[in-house]
Design brief:
The protein is of the alpha/beta class. The protein has a single domain, classed as Nucleoside phosphorylase domain (Rossmann fold, 3-Layer(aba) Sandwich), CATH 3.40.50.1580. The chain contains seven helices and nine strands, in the order E-H-E-E-E-H-E-E-H-H-E-H-E-H-E-H. A hairpin with a 6-residue loop joins strand 2 and strand 3. Helix 2 runs parallel beside helix 6 and helix 4 crosses helix 7. The longest helix is centred in the C-terminal third of the chain and has 19 residues. It is globular and about 45 Å long. Bound molecules: 1-O-phosphono-alpha-D-ribofuranose (R1P) and uracil. Catalyzes the reversible phosphorolytic breakdown of the N-glycosidic bond in the beta-(deoxy)ribonucleoside molecules, with the formation of the corresponding free purine bases and pentose-1-phosphate.
């Protein structure tokens, strides 16, 4: 048990999927895991542990933004021994070819700052995915026939952005999508020698203003969860 995760020792699996939304953690556990049990509800940040094809998996909400994810990822790694951490999140498309429902596999995550920025100071550390997870996820997505993009994403601190110039620069430099957690997840994984990946679903588009209707989200998010599970145990 830690300050933010009430699970007993041994209740967290070595493989952890991390959605921002705790209700997505519950839905994914109930939909994809066998024998899922609730292992955390501190602050309503739900976590479940069960099995997928016989493999133990925990699905733990991270909350929104890098400071929140940083708390959960740190405790999962340092106190519960998590080895593989895969974010399953929504993102906003930033390129014309990145459409609603597409999956984005984050090769790298650029950011203006992360909770780890104080460590790097003026060094531009490049947070990057684990290659084996990324490759396995790309194969799983192709096998499922899901339109998938692999490339750089942008992890921002603010959803309501007052710096449109930053979005413009990111788009200009080929960044595929924006979300709010991956840069810190990849940085923590590098620091602690763990495997990390972000598998994202495009839920809206910054240039076109399109949004995925809520009733269609579940099917699209389902592809993302299964790609993450297949990559974790490839
Ligand atoms: O759908 P999740 O995983 O929460 O991810 C995205 O959605 C939230 C913003 O609405 C941020 O957490 C962002 O990263
Ligand atoms: O952080 C996010 C997540 C989804 N869509 C966005 O535009 N931003």
């Amino acid at each position: 048990m830690t300050i933010h995760i009430g699970a007993a020792p041994g209740q967290i699996a070595e493989t952890v999927l991390m959605p921002g939304d705790p209700y997505r953690a519950r839905w994914a556990a109930q939909t994809f895991l066998d024998d899922a049990i609730l292992v955390n509800e501190v602050r309503g940040m739900l976590g479940y542990t069960g099995t997928w094809k016989g493999n133990r998996v925990t699905i733990q909400g991270s909350g929104m933004g890098m400071p929140s994810l940083s708390i959960y990822a740190n405790e999962l790694i340092r106190d519960f021994g998590a080895q593989t951490l895969i974010r399953i999140g929504s993102c906003g498309g930033m390129q014309a070819e990145v459409n609603l429902r597409d999956v984005v596999l984050a090769l790298t995550a650029s950011s203006l700052s992360t909770p780890s920025s104080g460590i790097f100071r003026d060094l531009n550390f490049a947070p990057a995915a684990n290659y084996n997870l990324l490759r396995a996820a790309a194969i799983a997505a192709t096998d499922r026939g899901v339109k998938t993009h692999v490339g750089g994403i942008y992890s921002t601190d603010v959803f309501y952005d007052e710096r449109p110039d930053l979005t413009e620069q990111m788009t200009r430099h080929g960044i595929l999508a924006v979300e709010m957690e991956t840069a810190e997840l990849y940085t923590l994984a590098a620091r602690h020698r763990r495997r990390a990946l972000a598998v994202l679903t495009v839920s809206d588009h910054l240039q076109t203003g399109e949004e995925l209707p809520s009733e269609e989200r579940e099917r699209s998010f389902g592809d993302m969860v299964e790609i993450a599970l297949e990559a974790a145990f490839a």
